[in-house]
Amino acid sequence: MYSEKLLNGRICFVTGTSKGLGKATVEAFAKAGAIVYANDIEEGSIDDFSQKLSETYNTEIIPLYFDVTDSLKCKEALIRINKERDRLDVLVNNAGIMKDALIGTITRPLIERVFDVNVFATMELIQLATKIMIRNNGGSIINLSSIVGITGNPGQLVYSATKGAIISLTKTAAKELAKRNIRVNAIAPGMIDTDMMRSIGDKHLAKHISNIPMGRLGNADEIANACVFLASDMSSYVTGHILVVDGSVLV
């Protein structure tokens, strides 16, 4: 797909990679020539996938298994990357959860869990990654938000709040880190064809698709390609941007 190895030799760290957008991003990065440390919470879940990509694209995909809400494990992962590679060029904060609840049924534990994964872990990994990136005079951080972080959505008070927080922290981090040559951007996907989206049933799915001007769901590769762009030098003057990939839903 790419005319050149846009990420050739880049050291990348991607969270939440056993399925969906994270899995597609790891493959897109591998195609572009990157060395990828791929995180997931489930032990062994990406072993075969990582080996296959490494062989297919003549690169290295290294699985790292831990919960991104575990501060110690996050620190250990970044220490390992720095020890083995002496650099980190790209961080993709993709790991996230969605737990829907109507106003009046939301519990404090639900709020804490969704924010812990979607927001607090992102902020912690940004801090850990930037310590390495600063020493190497630059890097790219990509955070996964959602169009519901911009528009809101009934039944998703907590989830949309976390994705709105991702947008705000992305803009703030971009301003603070620009002088360090570290770019921070976010991607706000619309309705993407994933197992989670398909789980709502054909009837509801058809209704959602009818509201998309392009007339179809997006696919995970289209989000992954956006990640490649933001990770590469093609976006060298892009920071603090929220890249909406939604088939024109928000226009």
Briefly summarize what is shown.
This protein is α/β, with parallel strands linked by helices and 251 residues long.
Description of the molecule:
With 251 residues, the chain is of the alpha/beta class. The chain has one domain: Rossmann fold (3-Layer(aba) Sandwich), CATH 3.40.50. The protein is 46% helix and 15% strand. It contains nine helices and seven strands, in the order E-H-E-H-E-H-E-H-E-H-H-E-H-H-H-E. Strand 2, helix 2 and strand 3 form a beta-alpha-beta unit. The protein starts with 10 loop residues before the first strand and ends in a 6-residue tail after the last strand. The model has no long low-confidence stretch (mean pLDDT 95).
Keywords summarizing the entry:
251 residues; alpha/beta; seven-stranded parallel beta sheet; 15% strand
Describe how the helices and strands are arranged.
Elements: E1 11-14, H1 20-31, E2 35-40, H2 47-57, E3 61-65, H3 71-85, E4 90-93, H4 108-135, E5 139-144, H5 148-151, H6 157-177, E6 182-189, H7 195-198, H8 202-210, H9 220-231, E7 242-245
Parallel strand pairs: 1-2, 1-4, 2-3, 4-5, 5-6, 6-7
Helix pairs in contact: 1-9, 3-4, 4-6
CATH class label: Alpha Beta
Which of globular, elongated, flat, extended, rod-shaped describes the shape?
A: globular
Low-confidence parts:
none
Q: What is the rounded distance between the termini?
A: 28 Å
Oligomer: single chain
Query: What is the overall pLDDT average?
Result: 95
Looking at the overall shape, the CATH architecture is 3-Layer(aba) Sandwich
Number of domains: 1
Q: The CATH topology, please?
A: Rossmann fold
Strand order of the largest sheet: 3-2-1-4-5-6-7
Radius of gyration: 17 Å
User: In percent, how much strand structure appears in the residues?
Assistant: 5-15%
Give the count of helical stretches. 9
Strand and helix order = EHEHEHEHEHHEHHHE
- Total DSSP E strands: 7
